[in-house]
Amino acid sequence: MKIGIIGIGLIGGSLARDLKKVYAEAYITGIDTSEAHLETALKLGIIDAKGDESSLKDAEIIILSIPVDAAVNVLPGILDTVQDEALIIDAGSTKTLICATVKTHPKRRNFLACHPIAGTEFSGPSAAIEGLFEGKTNIICEVEKTAFKLQEKALEIFQKLGMRIRYMNPEAHDKHIAYVSHLSHISSFMLGKTVIEKEKNERDIFDMAGSGFESTVRLAKSSPAMWTPIFDQNKENVIETLEEYIQNLESFKQKLKEDDLEGLYKDMQDTNKIKEILKGIPLNKL
Ligand code: NAP
After folding, report:
1. Is residue 188 within 8 Å of residue 220, measured between CB atoms?
2. Which of 18, 102, 116, 246 fits a 20 to 30 Å CA distance from 164?
3. 0.90 cut: is pTM over it?
4. Does ligand 1 have an atom closer than 6 angstroms to the CB of 225?
């Protein structure tokens, strides 16, 4: 089974590891703008060979796991290149623009738009983890626009990787993901920024930081190269979530100023509902 992976970082590399495990016959060619990442992926045995766009001509499966701005730029050209039976799956964290970009492409039926809700704050092939997708949700958009035989092939792969499937339209995906993923990242980035700016001496931060700070600021270690285009592509939804979030921060500040301790208590008590909502979902499955 010839597989091409464009972007052999955290997601592409983790997929490569799992695909090798479940398909003994998988031969994986890595394509990446970073020569260093390709070398690392080869050394770690994540890929079997380095390649370029010409290596995709006879690939059966192609995974596109690069930042979402680059994905939108390269996908039409990849579809032009591939053989008629090839399945191209993307992993981008935004779905509206990529689906719109290939809407009228003659090979639209070779493409399946996906977003595996799995990851960490780390990047590159050395961050790739075996089993990253086990028990996680994979959101598939516009499934009806992919050839039925290729949908079946993709579902078999996702099932072997242990993923749950949810179907959504791209606009609904981008709206919902703005709340549960994009806002969490902004909130973590800005918490980190606020603390770093105030505590110029980083040693003080580490001396005083407990596990609460560390877990809340974890996402601030994420790659700006990945997140800038995500915020750009999902700008309208992200701005809407930010407005609601800022309103809540303002309201918290106001209550504190007015000594409205009862109001603060109630806000926090109401938010404790999150325990019930997330109950039974292990942290590593969120
Ligand atoms: P990553 O670890 O940074 O890997 C991306 C790789 O693609 C890097 O090696 C990068 O090289 C390379 N690259 C960038 N532009 C390229 C291009 N035009 N052609 C070929 N290679 C290119 O990123 P990732 O976390 O795997 O994310 C990949 C995709 O998955 C993104 O679309 C992201 O939205 C999505 N995703 C991420 C997560 C997550 O938690 N990380 C979860 C779900 C989905 P350089 O480093 O040199 O730029």
Report:
1. yes
2. 102
3. yes
4. yes
Maximum Cα–Cα distance for the chain, whole Å?
A: 68
Residues 113 and 188 in one domain: no
Position in ligand 1 atom list of the atom nearest CA 222 = 41
pLDDT reported for residue 283: 46
Which ligand 1 atom sits closest to the C-alpha of 92?
32
Question: Are both 80 and 186 inside the same structural domain?
Answer: no
> Within the chain, which residues score under 70 in pLDDT?
201-202, 204, 206, 280-286
* Best mutation site among 11, 46, 63, 122 for ligand 1 pocket (most ligand atoms within 8 Å of CB): 11
- Per the structure, the complete domain to which residue 187 belongs is given by 172-285
Residue nearest to atom 38 of ligand 1 (CA): 119
185 and 141 share a domain? no
Predicted confidence (pLDDT) per residue in 218-246, tens digit: 999 999 999 999 999 999 999 999 999 99
CB distance 93 to ligand 1 below 6 Å: yes
Q: Are 153 and 182 in contact (CB under 8 A)?
A: no
Give yes or no for residue 74 CB within 6 A of ligand 1.
yes
Q: What pLDDT score does 277 carry?
A: 85
Shared domain for 195 and 120, answered yes or no, is no
pLDDT value of position 169: 97
Edge to edge, the sheet with strand 111-116 lists 49-50, 27-31, 2-6, 61-64, 87-90, 111-116, 137-141, 164-168
